[in-house]
Amino acid sequence: MSGPRWRELRFRSPDGLDLYARDYGPARGGPTPVLCLSGLSRNSKDAHPVAERIGQTRRLIAPDYRGRGQSAYAQDWSSYRVEVELADAIALLDAVEVDKAVVIGTSRGGLIAMLMANLHRDRMAGVLLNDIGPVLEPAGLLRIRRYLGKPLRAVTWRGAVAALKRTNPGFESLDEAQWLGFARRVYRDDNGRPALDYDTNLALAFPIRAEIKAGAALWDLLAAFEGLSAAALRGEHSDLLSPATHIRMARLVKGLDAVTVANRGHAPFLDEPDSAAAIDRLLARCP
Q: 0.85 exceeded by the pTM?
């Protein structure tokens, strides 16, 4: 994978799991660090496109959640929950001695960011939600349910790209090199073959009905962003975050920088011009 290199971190979760993170940029000094929190079944590789732009001058830390990437799998799959993953993220910040960070949360990571604003607001300098909000559309949840935890039948990287094309609508504008880069971030390389990069038990901890009904509580969580420098991206073709929810978010949180990212579904990669500009505006308010 091209671009800036990273330091590999190992740290312990509050309940004793061995967890992994990438640490880009200067280890000390400089602007406020960025904490990148990935999507449900994704990991620290998702932060690489952001790190390519800002990782030379600003520290960027990206964990593999428990059960994802190079982090240990939990013996109890019921610990694959937002509040547990938040506790792990706080343990990471403590381990690297970062008191406050700008949080970029993609999908699942955005839910963690909302909870963080309520429980650990003093650790947040700003926040960007990437294609996530208080209302999770059933169509998107059901699409995720259809592939989550299912075996990857592809034995080549071309086959892995084909699998992504089937399960990720809204990205038709990508060229083949971009699709391959996407696949390399989603899957791990197992002796030249693509493989799932997460514990398939994650599917057992994905209760769609509970996610759909969580809306009222999540609006209350979002309200905690008031007074924070905040932005919210929505993929133009997203099936998880609706335009109506995106608009309502901007009305609820004063000063929220609400941006629609063209030619993207769920979720933007954060390297698009619209995404990059929103990140830059946010970071300019978080020196």
A: yes
